[in-house]
Design goal:
- The complex is a heterodimer of chains A (354) and B (110).
- With 354 residues, chain A is an alpha/beta fold.
- Chain A is built from eleven helices and seven strands.
- Chain A has a five-stranded mixed beta sheet with strand order 2-1-3-5-4, with helices on one face.
- In chain A, helix 4 (103-123) crosses helix 6 (195-217), helix 5 (173-187) packs across helix 6 and helix 10 (318-333) runs antiparallel to helix 11 (338-349).
Amino acid sequence: MLHSHNHRVPLACIAPPDILRDIIIGGTEEERRAAADTMAVDQSFRTLRAAFSAMTASTPVLMRPMGGMGGKPNRTIYDQQHSNAYAPGVVARTEGSKKVKDVAVNEAYDGFGATYKFFWEVLGRNSIDNAGMPILGLVHYSTNYANAFWDGQGNMFFGDGDGQLFIRLTASLDVIGHELTHGVTQYEANLVYQGQSGALNESMSDVFGSLVKQYAKKQTADQADWLIGNDVVGPTLKPALRSMKAPGTANPYDKQPDNMEDYVNTAADNGGVHVNSGIPNHAFYVTATTIGGKAWEKAGRIWYDALRDNRVRPTTGFKSFARATVRQAQERFGDTAAEVDAVRAGWDKVKVKL
Amino acid sequence: MGTNVRLTRSGGFAGLSMVADVDLDSLPKPTAEEVRAALAEVDFDPPARRARRGRSTRSAPAPGPADMYQYDLVVKDGAGKDRTLTVHEPISDPRLQTLFGALLPLAQPE
């Protein structure tokens, strides 16, 4: 499919088992063999990951097998020059190099810097894979392209916008944080991009995208706007793309539910992953504002620990994830801590029964 | 009775659905011809869909990528036989690129 940069076989850890099983049952001889191989690699990769996280939990930073020293991003920004190609275009700025004239290039560079800094300083995470993975941004993708996406292979693409739905997407720190978090999620729970696990994947990106912005602005949960994309929406989507505080109210087309009774069943958008993400988004908002203070310090840490919880699997839904957040809050703060009550209150508010 | 084509582009970072729902007879002739020609070439039963048959009617998402678009195409030819197709980006089939390129300028947010 797209091209690959690093040490990993991309399909090995991103293909959902049910799809692979479908191919094994219904595919051609060749497809069956490839899918069976992929499943075998996937199983061993997950075993390795579990072993690796058990090891790093008790290993000093300096001894991390692949992590190096950490603390410094390795960014490269490419100019796609309006091409539709998925291969990186012309190198526009590399790590440590000076500002250039192109504002989108600088915004991507700085936005990735702020996102890396957030994950490192707040959560001790060294880049997308927690092992110093290069951060690659591809700007000026396509023509009037009103979207940004993570390609599953280490590349983040940003369009210049169409002026109607969006202006250039690099102008928003929460958008940049959102896209990079898709990479983090892929390297952790690897939530399948369909239905509830897909909506959780989307919600992770909104949660940490918003926290990147709050951290950069040094805002408390009460001071934050809890909006996504408000810096880059055009006239159609004004005043914001999504609201974690009040899902469904961000713009005239916002159909996000804020509780399970209004869960949207649809075949579009991989089962409404950008719509139903409103439910876990709001649970996080309620948890963070109930705890109070800076949302990244406690609520963000609990959500991150849950994303790394080995019991959270690629097909995990809202309820299992909610239970993981309670479990992680109990482990970190104690069984009867106020933080645990706040997590329960968050899921209770959106009618996800624990 | 003429052909009706409905294209829904969903997903993307915005999660906003854009819908083009057109009767080919009502389109300007060059656009109608372009769409007709592209439709005649489209494979409505691609290998990935054949592989899934009998297991699930749900379309499989592309693994890994996030915030890329999903396209749902429904073609009604008036003879009672609808043809449907769901695909996800990246779209490598040039016939689909041509078809979507012709229809998307007619799409409205839903």
